[in-house]
Amino acid sequence: MKNGLEDVIAAETRLSDVDGDAGRLIIRGISLEELVEDSSYEDVAALLLDELLERPIGAAELRASLGRARGEVFVHVQAMDGTLTDLPPVDAVRALIARLPDGDDFGTALLLLAAPAVFLPAILRIREGKAPVAPTPSLSQSADILAMLTGSLPTAEQVSALDAYLVTISDHGLNASTFAARVIASTKAGLTSSVLAAISALKGPLHGGAPGPVLDMLDAIGTEENARKWLGQALDRGERLMGFGHRIYRVRDPRADALKGALVPLVATGQVDADRIRLAEAVEQAALAILRERKTDRTHDVNVEFYTALLLDALKFPRKAFTGVFSIGRTIGWIAHAREQALEGRLIRPRSAYIGPVPQAA
Ligand code: COA
After folding, report:
1. What pLDDT, on a 0 to 100 scale, did the predictor assign at position 212?
2. In 80-225, which ranges are continuous DSSP H helix?
3. Annotated catalytic, 61?
4. Cα dihedral angle (59, 63, 68, 69), rounded to 10 degrees?
5. CA 248 to ligand 1: nearest atom
6. 93 CA to middle of ligand 1, Å?
7. Contact yes or no for 120/20 (Cβ under 8 A)
8. What predicted TM-score, i.e. pTM, was given to this entire model?
9. Could you tell which of 203, 236, 300 is best to mutate to test the pocket of ligand 1, judged by most ligand atoms within 8 Å of the CB?
């Protein structure tokens, strides 16, 4: 028995490879650095879905169809009531996705890709007493998400930054939510069921729930001079430093630098608070130093969540919605893995070692 299934190979995939020793992520044979440089969200979505649906779908067709799908799922926003608006945004997104049909074809995949992108901005606006903004099918997914969030057209730098984020987090090996998606797909349930299970796994603070607390940490630290003392006291209390550590990466998570790079044009054009970025860099250095000193049996480097927090904050997403934005980006990975599992895999049914009491012999 391997606690947490650490190092257990539980699937074969052609979708992505996480090399924890080298700090390298490959998606469909292309390095993350190259993908972020050259590809839009729609390019990567088409790449991940290649050969997994009933017919070939190029990026241009996917962009147009996804725009129309955003328009289609917008009708479900009317189902928002007080019960849903009171929930954390990711829970409200999950509840609305549960209204979609549970198919396994291109049409279902499109609705699932569109759904969190439309529902999250609408939920955030309704919570603030504002009317939801209808999607604009001709925009790219990233531009439309920001337009639906703010009610006005985003800048080119903002669109590029969100695109870089969505590409960076599109897929990442057999993480907990992707594994959940594959378990459901292995039973031959539909894609909607896989995505609902995956969102439920994602929302936990050890997986996709960390970036909000990263900002809370930066706020609590406040100044560069206070970083080391605050971090030391957090570790003394037995707390984990949010945005650091990873099950697989023993070196720096390559996604952290992809996102740090995506912030540069926003900083250069004055669209983000440069003092905040400086504070974050100082906190990062202090955290790495203190983790090196205190946790000597294993290295803990910065992970994707640290710069996710800064990027999504710069794009004006409220911190309580960060896990929901993560779900917008990761849905493509979940769908691709679910399809791969359904097409090539068997029912996932491991065994447990019973360590409870046994009946007394008569
Ligand atoms: N801060 C402080 N200590 C950390 C740590 C962190 N961020 N991450 C791991 N550790 C320590 C644990 O306390 C434990 O030390 P101990 O044996 O002295 O108690 C040791 O490292 C191993 O932890 P474990 O929980 O077994 O490792 P894991 O592989 O399950 O952890 C994470 C992976 C991501 C869950 C973990 O690093 C973490 O909780 N990070 C903070 C949350 C976060 O950023 N999540 C986003 C992940 S992308």
Report:
1. 85
2. 82-85, 89-97, 106-127, 141-150, 156-168, 176-186, 191-202, 211-221
3. no
4. 70
5. 29
6. 28
7. no
8. 0.94
9. 300
